[in-house]
Structure formats: structure tokens, C-alpha cells
């Protein structure tokens, strides 16, 4: 979108959670409901309704219907533009910054841009892709909790198989306008963790999530995100909860972590959230492992 030499606000990030729960909103639905759960396949670029959208790369239009345009750029590379009135036709050649692809639809206030490499979505904000783009904000690690069989457990009484869950957010680098104006979170692109005991790293740093370049398949959604996650403006039983901020909880491991691999004692799990520009924020949670038989811990 014009001006082409200036960055535009990104209101929805690559790999953000997209959640539509089948059941009405209850605590049970949040943690048990079936539905449609997927990773956001591109970025949502904020702009007024009716704003002209131009090609970002040269190529040939292979689809122009259903309020979506696809442009094949050669060598398996393509771009998709969503939520627009199409102004091109199949077979038409397009040029970056010159060809009008379409106009943003009413009540959308954004164009969704997906970048494809041989059919797989890649991060259009990665270095060397969508320019000019600068990320000046820093992600925030909000809290880390420990779960056993779906319920939170006190960190001073940890034993057996547990799941470490980190809540983290990032914020758009530029202010978003329109109905989405505010502090709606986007996702950090990478979540890392390690376990430390008295300053010594016992479990080397591991990566729980990394969408700096590409995405897992959607059937891995609940291996990455933990239950309790929901998108901005969440949807339960077809009802949209407008203007509500989403919540993003990340599993540090897709399967439970066996604390019996650690000697009993006091540890810190250190979790780091990172954005596409490499900005980081870290938080640690102290926990006590006691797998000895009969251990009750504190109430």
C-alpha cells in the first residue's frame, strides 16, 4: 500500500493463534471444546477500508475470486492477498508497486498477505522479505506455570510428569488504527527454555516454538499452544467477543516433562521470548522437585 517507502502497522502476526470453539464460552469449553484451531498463515496489514492494494512482487495471477488474489512469482514462490475486491484477472501479469490488486473490503480494515514457498507459508516479515519493516517493540514474558493432568500445581511441590506453560506476548511495532486500535497482542516468533540449578545449566536451552521462517502443520496446534489459549476477538459457538484481547500460552514441550530425570531439589526454569528483530525478554520460575514416595509438599 502507498506510500511504498514506509512501513505499515501489522495487527496480526505470522503464527498467531486462530481459534474458533464449538461450545459456548465456559471454563470447560476453553480447556475441552472441539473447534477449528490453526496458525495464522500470514500477516494482517492495517489500513482503512477501500484502501488500494498493489502487488508486492512481479508474477502472474492464478486466482482472482472469493475476495482473494493469488500471484505466482516463479520458482514455487507466490503471494496471496485476502479480504479485497479483486481488480485483476487470471492470467494477468502484475508488477510490484504498479499493478492494483484490489481494494480492502468494508468492515475489514486490513489486507491479509500470505507468502508461499512451494505451497508452504513462510514468514513475510523475515529479513529479506517484506520491506521496509522495522520491529522496535520488545516481547513480554508474562508468567510461567506448571501443570499436571491439565491443572496447575504449586511450584514448591513438583513430581512426576508435568507440563511447563509460558504466557508471552508481543505488540505491534506501529500503532494500529480503526476498530483494532489498542494493545491487541501478537505472538513472539520464538520461545526458548532451559533449566538451571544454583547457576549451573542442567537442561541445555531448547526451542519450544520457532516461526521465524515457517510454521508447523495445523494439526500440531495444541503441541505448541497450551489449552487456555484464544485469539484476539475470540469466537465461541459462533459468537464473536469483540474488542477482547487474546491470550497466548505456550507449551515448553509438546509432551509432559518427566521430573524424575532430575535429582530432587530446587531449580529455575528460564524462559525467553524473542521477536523477528531479535529483541528478547526472559523470566524464571523457581520450582522444587520431590519425587520421593510419600512427599506431600506445601498446601
> Structural class, judged by helices and strands?
mainly beta
CATH architectural arrangement of the largest domain: Sandwich
Helix content: under 10%
Q: Ranges with pLDDT <50 over ≥5 residues?
A: none
Number of structural domains: 2
Look at the structure and give the CATH class of the largest domain. Mainly Beta
Give the topology.
Elements: E1 10-12, E2 17-21, H1 27-32, E3 35-39, E4 43-46, E5 52-54, E6 59-65, E7 68-74, E8 77-82, E9 84-86, E10 93-94, E11 100-104, E12 110-117, E13 120-122, E14 140-148, E15 151-152, E16 161-169, E17 190-197, E18 200-210, H2 221-224, E19 235-236, E20 239-240, E21 249-251, E22 257-258, E23 265-274, E24 280-289
Describe this structure in words.
- With 299 residues, this protein is mostly beta strands.
- It has 2 domains: 10-122, Glucose Permease (Domain IIA), CATH 2.70.70; 140-289, Immunoglobulin-like (Sandwich), CATH 2.60.40.
- Helix content is 3%, strand content 43%.
- The chain is built from 2 helices and 24 strands.
- The protein has helices at residues 27-32, 221-224, and strands spanning 10-12, 17-21, 35-39, 43-46, 52-54, 59-65, 68-74, 77-82, 84-86, 93-94, 100-104, 110-117, 120-122, 140-148, 151-152, 161-169, 190-197, 200-210, 235-236, 239-240, 249-251, 257-258, 265-274, 280-289.
Amino acid at each position: 500500500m502507498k506510500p511504498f517507502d514506509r512501513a505499515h502497522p501489522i495487527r496480526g502476526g505470522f503464527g498467531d493463534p486462530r481459534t474458533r470453539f464449538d461450545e459456548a464460552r465456559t471454563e470447560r469449553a476453553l480447556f475441552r471444546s472441539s473447534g477449528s484451531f490453526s496458525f495464522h498463515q500470514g500477516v494482517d496489514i492495517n489500513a482503512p477500508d477501500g484502501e488500494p492494494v498493489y502487488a508486492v512482487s512481479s508474477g502472474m495471477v492464478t486466482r482472482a475470486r472469493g475476495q482473494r488474489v493469488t500471484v505466482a512469482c516463479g520458482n514455487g514462490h507466490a503471494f496471496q492477498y485476502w479480504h479485497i475486491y479483486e481488480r485483476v484477472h487470471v492470467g494477468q501479469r502484475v508488477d510490484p508497486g504498479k499493478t492494483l490488486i484490489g481494494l480492502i473490503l468494508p468492515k475489514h480494515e486490513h489486507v491479509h498477505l500470505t507468502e508461499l514457498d512451494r505451497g508452504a507459508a513462510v514468514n513475510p516479515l523475515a529479513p529479506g522479505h517484506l520491506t521496509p519493516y522495522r520491529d522496535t517493540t520488545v516481547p513480554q514474558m508474562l508468567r510461567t506455570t506448571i501443570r499436571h493432568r491439565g491443572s496447575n500445581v504449586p511450584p514448591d511441590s513438583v513430581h512426576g510428569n508435568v507440563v511447563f506453560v509460558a504466557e508471552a506476548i508481543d505488540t505491534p511495532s506501529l500503532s494500529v488504527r480503526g476498530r483494532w486500535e489498542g494493545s491487541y497482542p501478537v505472538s513472539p516468533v520464538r520461545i526458548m527454555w532451559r533449566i538451571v540449578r544454583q547457576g549451573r545449566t542442567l537442561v541445555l536451552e531448547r526451542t519450544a516454538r520457532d516461526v521465524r521462517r515457517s510454521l508447523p502443520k495445523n494439526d500440531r496446534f495444541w503441541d505448541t499452544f497450551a489449552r487456555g489459549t484464544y485469539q484476539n476477538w475470540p469466537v465461541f459457538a459462533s459468537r464473536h467477543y469483540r474488542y477482547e484481547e487474546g491470550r497466548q500460552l505456550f507449551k515448553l514441550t509438546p509432551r509432559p516433562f518427566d521430573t524424575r530425570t532430575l535429582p530432587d531439589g530446587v531449580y529455575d526454569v528460564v524462559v525467553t521470548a524473542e521477536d523477528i528483530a531479535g529483541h528478547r525478554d526472559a523470566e524464571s520460575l523457581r520450582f522444587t522437585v520431590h519425587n520421593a514416595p510419600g512427599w506431600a509438599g506445601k498446601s
